[in-house]
Fold these 2 entries.
Entry 1:
Amino acid sequence: MLKNESKRLVTKAEKLCEQRGVRLTPARREVFEILAAEANAIGAYDLLDKLKTAVPNAKPPTIYRALDFLQEQGFVHKITSSNSYVLCSHFGHQHPVQMLICENCGSVQEIQSDGVYEELYKQAEEQGFLVSTQTIEAHGRCRDCHI
Ligand SMILES: [Zn+2]
Ligand SMILES: [Zn+2]
């Protein structure tokens, strides 16, 4: 992500935190900035390595607490199948998530289709199942990799 773009995202996150009365602590902010600079999803331990350059005494719980917070605020999505994290491309509200994950270069693209969500919700309802969150992870090859 471009430098200006990640700055804009940090400012947006700061504003939202202020509105919600929650604190974007230095560690949370730092993790957010690292994710904003990444084009791909990144695992917790790689995040920790990067965080250590800014916060030398950072420990795994530092990262996990920051990630929990960022997920609660809807800033970050967890990709369960690869156990990694990616910044939400349009955070600010909770939404159903569909991820296109490239198996070759690791890029992650977030798409939003209400149609997919509604269909899933409808079919779940028919089974008497109440959906709380929904994340669809599609694996394959991105545009740059399938040539
Ligand atoms: Zn999102
Ligand atoms: Zn790719």
Entry 2:
Amino acid sequence: MSEEEGRLTRRSFTPAMRSAYDLVTGWMRAAGMVIHEDCIGNLVGTYTANRSAARTLIIGSHLDTVRDAGIFDGILGVMIGLAVVERLHQAKRRLPFAIEVVGFIDQEGLRFGSSFLGSRVLAGSFDPAALLLRDDQGVSVADAVREFGGHPDLIVQEARRAQTLLGYLEVHIEQGSQLERMNLPVGVANTIAGISRATLTFMGVTGHAGTMTMDQRHDALCGASEFVGAVEAYAREIPGLVATVGELCVAPGARNVVPGTATLSLDLRHQDDQARLSALAHLHWRAGAIASERGLSLRWDEAQVQAGTTMAPELRNRLATAIGAAGHTPVEFPSGACHDASVMSGITDSAVLFVRCKGGISHNPAESVTLEDVAAAIEVVERFINELAG
Ligand SMILES: [Zn+2]
């Protein structure tokens, strides 16, 4: 279910996403679930409880992907939730709580540069300004939601009431190699790193590559390059800090023109929010210093995407018990990648179960998990649910 021939790219609210929904909806129905799409367009399958006024356990992850993605990031968590409900349905068992399997419409944010449009709606932290974001074709989030069948004006009503929820569980490929190193199929996240992002533009003077002498130049790309090097060097010095420049756009962008503008992205993560914010401040200062040394001007726009979060101790303990009961050693470690669980922890107890992935590779078509590890994850979630029901 991809927008691109020969590689997996499934952005939010696209026909490829609709095909994925159609497929997953069929599987959810077959597993005894009642389906609905909420106002932003999240896909929700409900396996009702054996009594009325029961609370709800949400098992979810995202169905959108990055560009040229692997086939497990996000979708694996939805499929494992589905598999667990399928088994309950086959055994004709209902639990004292409802299970909702949720496929979030937008976590990676590839299409709109957004973040967590889906889970923020459920968590009640959706910023209506996000509806104004536009994709590269000029289509707004609001229009995309509408065209997909959602109702952008009613989004605030989708926020769940905390007292109706039992918790949120997300199964996700680890996207790191700790489990591989420890030779374990699954593990538990104790904290999830916060993220800050900035967009920087260095502005200089465009000129002729042949006639503008070196001493006349204020080359925007040379300033940006110096900054990229500085980011890497700084992040190497600060324990626990990861910093990435993943986008760089040069204008006018011709081989015989001295670059007049260079725009780049900065992504900063650290398990400690204070360390992340002071790193951000330092790099802001550094960018300014580079610009002024080179006679460039600098534009700096920053945003905190997500604060660091601690996963719910009670759910972590229950997961650890389930892992032990399934015959594996329970381990906990921090997540460097951000997940919908960070957002959901704003409204309910949340936890993440990681599944080992080959070489820690993710956001890459080489993403790989084994059948045995997925089976282990399903068993752990099953035990977790049974214990919760008990
Ligand atoms: Zn993911």
